[in-house]
């Protein structure tokens, strides 16, 4: 087992209606001037916007609306400007991963004189500056950003979608599954696949991690069984709650403790999103089974067989056979969530950008040095090609 | 799913040799005057004592040695006196659960004018006073105290062994599996059973907890498979590491998130320890299979069957049959760790104190109101009686 450190101070408030009695105190502990960040208006339709404004009555609230999916650096720049102009004390993010991700970088950018894209490209800069405390109300179960230090920000002008890390996790995260009951089937499926992908990225690791493996297997089973329930019964509070808590547990650092290799599928998907602005989770769902086929070999088949037996209840005694069945089961599960399983389904119709995306993914993700299995651009191109056909899957 | 809050700020430093470069800074961030608490001298034999003293050279170190298993209130009183007299800034606990448990209460008692037993009997008093920061170096995988707010303190004069909770978890916990390589087979078995019991106490809960159930199942499998390895190969770093991290994860609050009923086997065992001063984990190993038989009924058999299938890989399709096989498997596992499976094995030879212990357990543990299955004193007596025979087990 590898050495590691773990500390995560986020104060999780999980459950129904907790903001009513707790939101104001959670914010005012840091001050009275709030930058309230949200997305495209779904919180206005749901009534959450009004509730928040009522709870913050009398406080000095500045709004940044319209943060988009795959949040863009332009939103961060706008937030930086507001945070500085109004000298805010705390950021309140109400929304999904995009809103919270942008808010985290804004929280750093308040203390930065330059363009915040520099903070995205070089996270180390953020450790030398302060970061505003962040309180969030999560409305989409997917990214796990509600309990980690990461953000992913897109710069469409440069066709870049990059991860960046600040010094702090959110101070307080309100996780009310009821706020996700109206999430569309498309976003529910994409979010569930995103959670599952966070788990596979950490599970398929070269390090020996007996404790976190078992925890991950349990979280995978939770996502696999609850995503279809949430799709079939969107207002099932327990299924929504299971996905919400699983998303948080999947990426708060705990189950990656002691890991050693970098992630693979996420950096590859980030290229698809950066060039085609597709839904992140849907891209992951297309790529993941192809990646599994790509990296299944004699040295990895035992881990895939463990995945087969402990996650998918596959009984095959031969490791390779069990592994192949597990990859098929993964593909079947994605398909069952009623999202595309080939790139044409997200309107990527040709291979024109495969080479440039593959080269960028290998570079940004250090896939040729830090991947679970080291991948060259040609391997990534092969994954893209395989993602244009259902060949190899039943 | 129930509402809950979760926050745990403990800074975990897991792995080999981290204290060499990190212990001094971890302590001096809080000050220069240290109360160094340890147990019966095993850290002197192992060289850890000398290493710590070398790392703290030049600092103002006061020692409290001799904290005993099932730590006694007398040790806490001695620590309180030293902490006040020397106005220490921070407590350093080096040892197992007993040393850390006593240190946590000492950390509160420095700020209390009365007898610290009052703090044990009424934890609420501790929330109104300060608590010294605690840094610990764990040397036994068992209680999980290294990442939670709890302590269990014994008062033999009153035949009481009670849980108490302070406002804070340890500030920094160093978890080096190498520090557990010399733990005896007896303590290794007892510690592993303690971890397993923490998991069963939280798993068998009336609340619907889909996410934490899966995480617990993974942790259970880790303990079940690694305890025998650590017994057979005491110097197996990975097996020791798996038990160490599992002990921390089992009781840092995470996998109990959203739970609703109180614990049962722990309060019952605390009576055995309070009256007979037996090893806690061994008592749990004797009681747990009897408790499972006691609470298995039509309303609980589905949960026991899930336990059977996801933890013990039992294939029986009938829930009751699967449940019964899982209880037998639990008994077999305890027995395989080479510890007694009946009370006579810990020199409890008669039923003289069964009634008084049962009444106390029901009262202290609120077993008749808050148990997973509500238990009256007569039920607990029946468990004690069943613990004097192997009847019902193969």
Notable traits:
8 strands; alpha/beta; Rossmann fold; 2 domains; 6-stranded parallel sheet; homodimer; ADH_Fe_CS (chains A, B); two-stranded antiparallel sheet; Dehydroquinate synthase-like, alpha domain; 394 residues
Structure explained in plain terms:
Two copies of one chain form a homodimer. By secondary structure, chain A is an alpha/beta fold. The first copy, chain A, has two domains: 11-180, 3-Layer(aba) Sandwich (Rossmann fold), CATH 3.40.50.1970; 185-386, Up-down Bundle (Dehydroquinate synthase-like, alpha domain). Chain A is 51% helix and 12% strand. Chain A contains 17 helices and eight strands. The first copy, chain A, has helices spanning 18-28, 42-46, 48-55, 73-85, 97-109, 116-121, 124-127, 185-203, 210-232, 237-250, 265-276, 280-295, 301-312, 319-336, 354-364, 367-370, 377-386, and strands spanning 4-14, 33-38, 60-64, 90-95, 134-138, 150-155, 160-165, 172-175. In chain A, the strands form two sheets. Chain A has a six-stranded parallel sheet with strand order 1-8-5-4-2-3. Chain A has a two-stranded antiparallel sheet with strand order 6-7. In chain A, a hairpin with a 4-residue loop joins strand 6 (150-155) and strand 7 (160-165). The radius of gyration of chain A is 20 Å and the shape is globular. The two termini of chain A are 38 Å apart. The model of chain A has no long low-confidence stretch (mean pLDDT 97). The interface between A and B is large, with 44 and 44 residues.
């Amino acid at each position: 087992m590898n050495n590691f450190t773990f500390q995560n101070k986020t104060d999780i408030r999980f459950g129904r209606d907790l903001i009513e009695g707790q939101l104001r105190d959670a914010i005012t502990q840091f001050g009275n001037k709030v930058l309230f960040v949200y997305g495209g208006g779904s919180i206005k339709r749901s009534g959450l916007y009004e509730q928040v404004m009522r709870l913050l009555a009398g406080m000095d609230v500045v709004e940044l609306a319209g943060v988009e999916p795959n949040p863009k650096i332009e939103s961060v720049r706008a937030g930086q400007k507001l945070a500085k102009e109004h000298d805010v004390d705390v950021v309140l993010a109400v929304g999904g991963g995009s809103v919270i991700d942008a808010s985290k970088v804004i929280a750093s950018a308040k203390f930065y004189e330059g363009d915040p894209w520099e903070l995205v490209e070089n996270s180390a800069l953020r450790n030398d500056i302060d970061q505003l405390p962040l309180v969030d109300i999560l409305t989409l179960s997917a990214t796990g950003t509600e309990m980690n230090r990461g953000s992913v920000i897109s710069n469409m002008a440069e066709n870049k979608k990059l991860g960046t890390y600040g010094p702090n996790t959110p101070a307080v995260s309100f996780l009310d599954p009821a706020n996700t009951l109206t999430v569309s089937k498309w976003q529910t499926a994409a979010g569930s696949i995103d959670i599952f992908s966070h788990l596979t990225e950490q599970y398929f690791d070269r390090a020996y991690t007996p404790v976190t493996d078992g925890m991950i297997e349990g979280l995978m089973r939770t996502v696999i069984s609850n995503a279809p329930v949430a799709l079939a019964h969107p207002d099932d509070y327990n299924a929504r709650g299971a996905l919400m808590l699983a998303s948080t547990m999947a990426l708060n650092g705990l189950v990656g403790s002691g890991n050693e290799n970098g992630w693979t599928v996420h950096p590859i998907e980030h290229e698809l999103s950066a060039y085609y602005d597709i839904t992140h989770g849907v891209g992951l769902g297309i790529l993941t089974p192809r990646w599994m086929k790509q990296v299944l070999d004699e040295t990895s088949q035992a881990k895939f067989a463990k995945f087969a037996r402990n996650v998918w209840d596959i009984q095959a005694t031969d490791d390779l056979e069990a592994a192949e069945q597990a990859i098929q089961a993964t593909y079947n599960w994605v398909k069952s969530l009623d999202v595309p399983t080939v790139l044409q389904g997200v309107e990527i119709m040709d291979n024109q950008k495969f080479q440039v995306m593959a080269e960028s993914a290998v570079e940004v993700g250090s896939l040729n040095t830090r991947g679970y299995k080291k991948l060259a651009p040609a391997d990534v191109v092969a994954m893209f090609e395989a993602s244009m056909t259902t060949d190899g899957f039943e």
